[in-house]
Amino acid sequence: LTSEDYAALRESAYNVVNDSEYNVDTDLTEAPSDDKDKDKYSLEVAVWGRFITEDQFKPLFEAFKPYAEAKGLDVSAIHYTYYVGKESSDPYFYIANFTGGIVSNGGADIAFACKDNFTTQSGTQITSAEIYKLNITLNNDKDRCVARMTDTDLGKAFVEFCLTTEGRAILDPSVKDTGGSSDGEEEEKYSLEVAVWGRFITEEQFKPLFEAFKTYAEAKSLDVSGIHYTYYVGKESSDPYHYIADFTGAIVNNGGADIAFACAENFTTQSGTQITSVEDIQPLNITLNGSANRHVARMTDTDLGKAFVEFCLTTEGRAILDPSVK
């Protein structure tokens, strides 16, 4: 090959790699600083501006404060640093620059909007962290995660908040919280939590079933004041919970559920599922939006959970979802 050939090959390889998240820019830019001593911060969040705008992140950060205070945590010294990186010409577009900026800035407790291979991808300067998938669509990206790099109560609470329905809905409006606002104890206050898979049922179809169940349960002397459902949008392949991995992953990240509704009989065994064990799974024996294979899975051993499954299998419950049932 001639010298011109080698030059052309080098340029071609550069152009292919240049668009990748994994590209490494060895000319590391000094990290943004606000002249404050980083040791003063009880929580430092490093926000990767390649995948989220500062205007998107700020409401999440502000909403975290009352959540943490409800847990008895002091938020007077929490702080975030936004690393600009939307364009390839920005200083923190590449993983090497973003992680290098965190390191040169004295470290951080949290890295936000990273990917699940944050500690292993080529060029990273951070090799150890606990990583959690956000299970949202963020600027058309379903792969964003939050990474915790230190073992502090504030750091753990921040991750926990990011994975609640409230936190996720701030970043992704398609996430719906049907149970009202959070007081820092969201997962503990529901006596029954139903996870509804929106791939196979609309929320408008499910709501009448949920409301009718309240009357059924009260007739059995069960308290329904704390029951709740979360609707996971998934009708289209572009929706955040279309696939089983995303639906079950969100259930796990959201603190679990008592019921999974509109799943298939292989809910615990199909490829990608993050829930591998349930107490019971029953066929609904109806046709639901063209599917005759929908089930209700009970994942906990509670009277309300058992009653919900029981009601779903009654003629009354089934007829709500399938008018052909008489």
Q: If you had to describe this structure to a student in words, what would you say it looks like?
A:
The protein has 326 residues and is of the alpha/beta class. It is 32% helix and 15% strand. It is built from nine helices and ten strands. It has helices at residues 3-18, 54-70, 95-104, 153-162, 165-171, 203-219, 244-253, 303-312, 315-321, and strands at 43-48, 78-83, 110-114, 130-133, 145-148, 192-197, 227-232, 259-263, 280-283, 295-298. The strands form two sheets. Strands 2-1-3-5-4 form a five-stranded mixed β-sheet, with helices on both faces. Strands 7-6-8-10-9 form a five-stranded mixed β-sheet, with helices on both faces. Helix 2 (54-70) links the parallel strand 1 (43-48) and strand 2 (78-83). Helix 2 crosses helix 4 and helix 6 packs across helix 8 (303-312). The longest helix has 17 residues, at 54-70. It is elongated. The termini are far apart.
Provide a short characterization of the protein structure:
The protein is of the alpha/beta class and 326 residues long. 32% of the residues lie in helices and 15% in strands.
